[in-house]
Amino acid sequence: RTAQNDVSKSFLQRRRFKDADSKILETRRFNDAPSVPNDVPASAPPAATLVKFVHAPLSFFALDQMTYKGKRTNVDVGDPEDYTRPLVKDLASDASFSCGSWVCTQGGWDSPNHKKATEWFVVLSGAGAVTDPDGTRHDFRAGDVVVLPKGWYGRWDITEQIHKVWINDAHDDIPGASTTPVVASLASFAPHMLERAGTSPERLARTFFDNGRTRAGFWSCAPGSFPGGKGKTAECVHIIGGTVFLTNEDGSARRICAGDTVVLPDGWTGRWDVVERTEAVWASVTPP
Description:
Blueprint: H1 2-13, E1 54-56, E2 67-71, E3 75-78, E4 81-91, E5 97-104, E6 107-111, E7 118-131, E8 137-141, E9 145-148, E10 154-169, E11 182-184, E12 195-198, E13 203-210, E14 214-221, E15 224-229, E16 234-248, E17 253-257, E18 261-264, E19 269-285
Antiparallel strand pairs: 1-18, 2-4, 3-6, 4-5, 5-10, 6-10, 7-8, 7-9, 7-10, 9-11, 12-13, 13-14, 14-19, 15-19, 16-17, 16-18, 16-19
């Protein structure tokens, strides 16, 4: 138990930011707006054929950059207020993939309607819980990764103002798929719990959720370079620690580091150049 606590603490320390509403402790070299690099070499293929990643530094999701949605009306505990900011929407071949950020102040409410999409989110700051109809409670806090499958319903309780980055996968029903929420802590991604996912450079990974089209997990990579390609898969990657340069097929690139969120649309191809060991949580959608 002590070893797992030490691992969890070290991961959190490597996040290099105090909480999700701060402006990022290290100096950013890029604008706060999500970026699709546009420095296209003359020899690049026509722009219409290029698929580029979308990059958002943590400051893009700072509270003062988000849209105030007002007070929730269906509450029975507290007086919670919502803030949101989208990053992308309608990606994947079936336009099912959306990504953004959400902040909610303390409070609680019932959520009696079955979810129409599978939701993945990483908790940047704060704490809360979702509770199943049978009373099973699933607590989460900063650093945890949560999946709420399509069809889940129950209750939300925000015990400490929460800030999260999320994706939604609005898919058809999957026969036999579980609707039980899944919470994965950083401690569950300790090195001894990971599997080898690649060499040159060494890559370690663990998938903790897979319903046949929506997958989620953790990824760690040693310094080095390798090509990347998504095919039919759209993916969101949130960097926990480390530094990597991500390059599009046309040569445009961005430096990605702790706190950043990157969306790799389906059809993206490019290159990863990992400067220092990089750790990330991710969620992907692969339509049939």
